[in-house]
Design brief:
The longest helix has 12 residues, at 46-57. The protein has a domain at 21-65. Strands 1-2-3-4 form a four-stranded antiparallel beta sheet. The model has no long low-confidence stretch (mean pLDDT 86). It is built from one helix and four strands. It starts with 10 loop residues before the first strand and ends in an 8-residue tail after the last helix. Helices cover 18% and strands 25% of the residues. The chain has 65 residues and is of the alpha+beta class.
Length: 65
Amino acid sequence: MIKTETEVAFRRSSACATDACVEVDVGAELVVVKSTRGDTRLTFSPGEWAAFIQGVKAGEFDVPR
């Protein structure tokens, strides 16, 4: 079941000090990601989200220096 707008509980990083942040709602069936500056939302399955987080932790998305 997809959450209604009132059921979505976006979380923002505690490191975010501006209004230009990413917010995430992790649900059992769907992960929703959005910018605090707009209404565009991206949705992922829990498996896709887990693979993304694993890649972040492994440094796959690090900017080359």
